[in-house]
Specification:
Keywords: Membrane, Transmembrane, Transmembrane helix. The protein has one domain. It is 68% helix and 0% strand. The chain is built from 16 helices and no strands. The radius of gyration is 22 Å and the shape is globular. The two termini are 27 Å apart. The mean pLDDT is 88.
């Protein structure tokens, strides 16, 4: 019991450390490097300012979305933040970072949503993943998700050591309908709006529609929850324990597909030399420019906490189009990377809980963890650990039932 408490305490400390590092790289840095001041200057006061704009974005800027002043003020800042990346003058390496981070963000969100759907989470705060999502869209991923992970460690039956294998399998079980609907609803609520909001404006979308789409995407946790509810209302699932599944493989395959495609895609662009393109056609020249600008460091590694990109918004009357994208990308990188390290630590602990009622442990997974990290990044590692956890729980529970 003491060992269990000590291990869980160490995991909690590690998660808090991730939150502290990420919090500094996002919120603290945002106040120091001019990001937040610039967002406030351009779009932060819709009631008194008439010249609202996103640097490099289409005009006019839309500052009213719901008719509720407090909500619209928050949405204006969020739209301005994402607009800085999407609309500002940026390089191909920033584009590569943006799409990679968005894909990894989507994958980790899907994993957390799955955990909230487990039967052991029902009726507990950890089942409110939609609420958590709306909170992290407001106050950052890194300040919200670690809190959720810590609550999960102390309240979810799947995080408790020493439990009966059959009871652990029952707590980890998921409605099969949810395993089908979750990838579909994640695609409709997160991926489709993310692609739509990233289309160039006004070439593809007029300014108003462009900003509405960014605001709409920011509420993706709400849309996902509503879609899950609506689909299940139309097609209710079977009742009873026999209809449940302990190993939601379809969700893990969906998550790993996102991770692998984004990770290997950006990695290929980063490591392939631009000199390999010898054709002089317009498409070849464009590809050569992408390969020339994107390298491993610029695509995957954020600027240091001690030397972030910085601007002085008070030195100009109007923020230039190329100022804010590097600052917003830096914020996004530390937000996502720090959170995903915490998610991997949490997933590793859950795997160790399952293997404590079986045989083996994290040592058995070392080779797989390294493999999935290389081909899919940290979220792929977390998915691998959770998938293996589910498989171990299911097999152990079946063995116990047969022995009875």
């Amino acid at each position: 019991m003491k060992s269990q408490k000590a291990t869980r305490a160490a995991v909690v400390v590690a998660i808090i450390a991730c939150a502290a590092i990420g919090g500094y790289g996002t919120m603290a840095t945002g106040f120091k490097n001019g990001l937040f001041e610039s967002l406030e200057k351009t779009t932060g006061d819709p009631l008194s300012r008439h010249d609202l704009y996103v640097p490099g974005g289409p005009q006019p800027f839309k500052s009213s979305y719901t008719g509720i002043a407090a909500v619209d003020g928050l949405l204006a800042i969020l739209v301005a933040f994402w607009g800085a990346i999407i609309d500002g003058d940026r390089t191909w390496n920033m584009d590569a970072s943006y799409w990679y981070l968005m894909a990894q963000f989507c994958a980790s969100w899907c994993l957390l949503s799955l955990e909230g759907l487990r039967k052991g989470s029902k009726g507990k705060a950890v089942s409110w993943t939609g609420t958590m999502g709306l909170i992290f869209q407001t106050i950052t991923y890194i300040l919200t998700v670690p809190t959720y992970l810590i609550i999960h460690l102390f309240t979810s039956p799947v995080a408790k050591r020493g439990g009966e294998p059959v009871a652990l399998a029952a707590a980890a079980a998921v409605d099969p309908a949810d395993t089908v609907l979750l990838p579909v609803c994640t695609t409709l609520a997160f991926i489709v709006p993310a692609v739509m909001m990233s289309l160039p404006s006004p070439e593809f979308l007029p300014a108003s529609s462009h900003y509405i789409m960014i605001a709409f995407w920011n509420a993706f946790p709400l849309w996902q929850s509503l879609l899950m509810w609506a689909f299940k209302l139309i097609s209710p699932s079977e009742k009873g324990a026999k209809s449940l599944t302990t190993v939601p493989s379809s969700v893990y395959k969906f998550v790993l597909t996102i991770c692998i495609v984004s990770h290997l895609g950006v990695l290929a662009i980063a490591v392939v030399p631009h000199t390999i393109v010898s054709d002089n056609s317009p498409y070849a020249l464009a590809l050569s420019a992408i390969l020339k600008q994107v390298d491993f460091s610029s695509a995957f590694i954020p600027a240091s906490l001690w030397n972030p990109p910085t601007v002085d918004p008070n030195s100009v009357d109007r923020i230039p189009a190329d100022w804010l994208a590097p600052l917003a990308i830096h914020f996004f990188q530390w937000d996502i990377y720090s959170t995903h390290v915490a998610v991997v630590i949490w997933a590793g602990y859950l795997y160790s809980v399952a293997t404590s009622v079986s045989s083996g442990g994290l040592g058995k997974m070392t080779g797989r963890v390294v493999f999935w990290f290389l081909v899919g990044g940290p979220v792929a590692v977390a998915a691998c650990l959770l998938w293996e956890r589910d498989a171990v729980v299911a097999v152990t529970a079946r063995k116990v039932k047969k022995a009875e």
